[in-house]
Write a structure and sequence with these properties.
globular; alpha+beta
Length: 184
C-alpha cells in the first residue's frame, strides 16, 4: 500500500493573513534597575507571537517629563526604541505591550508618573488611529528627542507618519530648543 505523507506539509491557511508591518515601540524606565528593565522588556517583546524581526537602539538617559513639563528632580529615564516586524494587529500589539509592562511591575497610579517600564506604540506602518484607546502615530512622538534620536539610530531613513522624516524632526526640535535656550 502506497501512503503519501501529506501530514508533513501543512495545508494552506484559509484565513486571510495580515501583511507584516514595522511597529515602532518606545521603551522607558526610571525606577529600579533601568538597564535590566529595558533588556528584559526587549527579550520579552522579541518573543511575542507573530514577530519576525526585532532590533533595539542603545539606551539613552533623559530628564523625566511630567504633565507640567521636564522635571529634573524626578529620577531620570533610560529610553530606547525598538523596531519589530509583526503581523499582530495594532490593537492586539498594544494589549500585549501593556501586559509586558505589568509583567515588569508597572503600576498605573499617576498619569505621567515614575514607572518601572513604559512601552508606547509610536508607529505601526502607515496605520493611523485617533481613537482614545489607540492613538497611532503617538501624538507626542514628534516632540520627544528621547524617542526620535534612538529611533533614528536604528533606522536612518525613519519617517513618522503625518509628521515627516525623523532626522528633520530632530533638527527642528534642536533648532527650536537652542533658540529658546531649553532642551527636550
Amino acid at each position: 500500500m502506497n501512503r503519501r505523507l501529506t501530514h508533513l506539509t501543512p495545508p494552506p491557511d484559509p484565513r486571510p493573513g495580515r501583511e507584516p508591518q514595522v511597529a515602532v515601540i518606545a521603551l522607558g524606565s526610571n525606577e529600579g534597575d533601568r538597564g535590566d528593565m529595558l533588556r528584559a522588556a526587549a527579550e520579552r517583546l522579541s518573543r511575542l507571537p507573530l514577530v519576525d524581526d526585532f532590533v533595539m537602539s542603545e539606551p539613552i538617559e533623559s530628564v523625566a517629563v511630567k504633565l507640567d513639563g521636564p522635571d529634573p528632580d524626578a529620577p531620570p529615564y533610560l529610553n530606547a526604541v525598538a523596531l519589530m516586524t509583526t503581523r499582530l494587529a495594532p490593537q492586539v500589539l498594544l494589549v500585549m505591550l501593556h501586559a509586558v509592562e505589568e509583567e515588569q511591575g508597572r503600576v498605573r497610579l499617576e498619569r505621567w508618573g515614575d514607572r518601572t517600564l513604559d512601552l508606547d506604540l509610536i508607529a505601526y506602518g502607515d496605520f493611523r488611529s485617533d481613537e482614545e484607546h489607540l492613538m497611532v502615530p503617538h501624538p507626542r512622538a514628534a516632540e520627544r528627542l528621547f524617542v526620535l534620536e534612538p529611533w533614528l539610530s536604528v533606522d536612518p531613513e525613519a519617517v513618522l507618519p503625518g509628521a515627516g522624516r525623523v532626522d528633520e524632526l530632530i533638527r527642528r526640535l534642536k533648532d527650536t530648543s537652542s533658540d529658546s535656550g531649553t532642551e527636550q
